[in-house]
Write a structure and sequence with these properties.
Elements lengths: L6 H9 L1 H5 L9 H8 L1 H10 L7 E6 L14 E5 L12 E3 L2 H7 L5 E10 L4 E10 L2 E14 L5 E8 L3 H13 L4 E9 L5 E7 L7 H6 L3 H9 L15 E3 L1 H14 L4 H17 L5 E2 L8 H22 L11
Length: 331
């Protein structure tokens, strides 16, 4: 069974889908379906047709188009790639707070190829609805909420918690995935405000970064999908352990290191740093499930930890010592 674990591997499997299908079970739908999910703009268009609320979004091919939107699109803005096809984007995700910020970032016109998405910033908690579909029916569903993210302005989960599934979000997600004719696992992402207003963000059409959270809570998506692809009927529990907490340790430490560095220039970063330090004891409680560490196979996590410590040490030395210490000697 071939399991795409990120968007680039999903692209690779999709590109050779029909050949690989003869050799193995594939844990993703065929190209005509996955291509829509790999295009964020196409996914947003389909979500809007399905009745989901989406952010105010513009497709931008050149930074020279941005000033014309100062009066029509409220700040702050988020500029991000319109597709997930490659890691080579110069801009992964950029927050633009004011018109002056836009001018300072783009002193010269810059062409975006492929085009970028410009969206209004959506406040609220990141919520994921994870589902396993088989012939259009939802066999398993799970919901998590992001607690801490890296970068701290919004990104990947570094701590998260299992929640009871919100029926309205589940129905919206199922309607969208059925419109896609989706088969297998997917995570539908939202930003949810304290008042309950949910804005659709994107679909992850493969296994997501917090996959070990539902497993720890009692919903083993990979096992159920393997059983389906091999002609077995999975026994899926009717409930899971709500309140299960999860931590991606390396991401957590990277976020903390970033806050330490940016705290010199940002009052908001200093505020988050104080909050983070106050919550560390609880975040590293034995009751919190680690994303990768297992007593039965500890070495991958140990090696990742040592690699990150080496990076932190090297980066700190470079930040503290003057540049002349790192100049190459003249020959």
């Amino acid at each position: 069974m071939v399991i795409p674990a990120d968007d680039q591997s999903l692209v690779a499997v999709t590109a050779h889908y029909h050949h690989l299908q003869k050799l193995s079970c594939l844990a993703c739908p065929p190209p005509e379906i996955t291509d829509i999910v790999l295009s964020k703009f196409s996914t947003l268009e389909l979500a809007q047709k399905c009745g989901l609320e989406i952010p105010n979004t513009k497709l931008i091919s050149n930074s020279a188009q941005l000033p014309a939107l100062f009066s029509s699109l409220p700040f702050p803005w988020v500029l991000k790639p319109s597709g997930k096809e490659t890691r080579a984007e110069e801009i992964k995700s950029m927050m633009l707070l004011t018109a002056d910020d836009v001018v300072a970032r783009f002193l010269r016109a810059r062409e975006f190829a492929p085009p970028m998405l410009l969206q209004e910033y959506c406040a609220g908690a990141g919520v994921g609805i994870e589902m396993l579909l088989h012939h259009g029916e939802c066999l398993a569903a799970f919901q998590h909420r992001r607690i801490k993210e890296f970068p701290y302005t919004g990104g990947i989960s570094v701590t998260a918690i299992a929640e009871a599934v919100n029926q309205k979000l589940l129905d919206s997600s199922l309607a969208l995935l059925r419109a896609l004719r989706w088969e297998g696992v997917a995570m539908v992402e939202y930003k949810v405000n304290p008042d309950g207003r949910a804005v659709f963000m994107e679909v992850n059409g493969r296994y997501w970064g917090t996959i070990s959270l539902p497993i720890a809570a009692g919903i083993d998506f990979p096992l159920y999908q393997w059983q389906l692809l091999h002609g077995e009927r999975p026994e899926i529990p009717k409930s899971y352990s709500i309140g299960t907490k999860w931590r991606f340790t390396m991401g957590y430490l990277t976020r903390l290191y970033s806050l330490l560095g940016q705290g010199r220039h940002s009052a908001y970063a200093r505020q988050l740093l104080r909050q983070n330090l106050g919550e560390m004891l609880g975040d590293f409680s034995l009751s919190v499930s680690d994303a990768t560490f297992k007593l039965s196979d500890p070495m991958p996590s140990v090696v990742a930890f040592l690699t990150h410590m080496r990076y932190f040490a090297s980066n700190t030395v470079k930040a503290v010592l003057p540049p002349r210490f790192f100049r190459q000697p003249q020959v």
